[in-house]
Amino acid sequence: MNKAVLPTDPATLPVVTEESILIFDLDNTLYPSSCDLFSQVSVLIKKYVSDYLGMPPEQAFLIQKEYFRRYGTTLRGLMLEHKVDPADYLHKVHDIDLSVIAPSPVLSNALKSLPCRKVIFTNASRGHASRVMERLGIADHFETIFDIVDAEYVPKPEQQPYDKLLARDGIDPKRAIYFEDMAKNLLPAKDMGMTTVWVHSDSDWAHEGRDDPRIDHETDNLPAFLEMLAQRAAR
């Protein structure tokens, strides 16, 4: 991802003020999807399902994908179907190597240039989010994390986590800009009044909904897009 996808008219970009709130998904949004962290997580999920249900890895993988398709996350399927302990699951499946993510001073500087509230909104765990943010060198720029536990294990794009995020953190959706690599996760946010930005992903499954008119902007270079917002705010 080397070139920002710019709007036809830069004047269509939202104007960020001190009252704005920037909401960011975590994985494949704040770092490039080419880091492929999910392949590591997927291997650990398959192992967890195999060990917990006592079945061969090949069968566990089919269960893993079926629960993801039916329930939005494999975890939610395991909780509903097998009463799995979510804390144990989240601890084990996020025990991954983050060295594939390079620190990003460019992203850090771009975030710093926008002096407004910034929050993380993720289907992953708070611990995983914190480790990724520390690795990127951007943790100091965010006031809070809203994770899958805060959402009571109901994943995006279901409506409940969006409602809970806004209520917990006192967010006015009309002042919010939401950045997300999974296009379909932007749609409920737009319906609530947020400005939406699709961050391009190499993963085909992240493209569902990409042509929906509720996506306001798109980019394949998040730091560059944030720098454009900062330049517009400074005018």
From TrEMBL:
<dbReference type="InterPro" id="IPR010237">
    <property type="entry name" value="Pyr-5-nucltdase"/>
</dbReference>
<protein>
    <submittedName>
        <fullName>Pyrimidine 5'-nucleotidase</fullName>
    </submittedName>
</protein>
<dbReference type="InterPro" id="IPR041492">
    <property type="entry name" value="HAD_2"/>
</dbReference>
<dbReference type="Pfam" id="PF13419">
    <property type="entry name" value="HAD_2"/>
</dbReference>
<dbReference type="InterPro" id="IPR023214">
    <property type="entry name" value="HAD_sf"/>
</dbReference>
<dbReference type="InterPro" id="IPR006439">
    <property type="entry name" value="HAD-SF_hydro_IA"/>
</dbReference>
<dbReference type="InterPro" id="IPR036412">
    <property type="entry name" value="HAD-like_sf"/>
</dbReference>
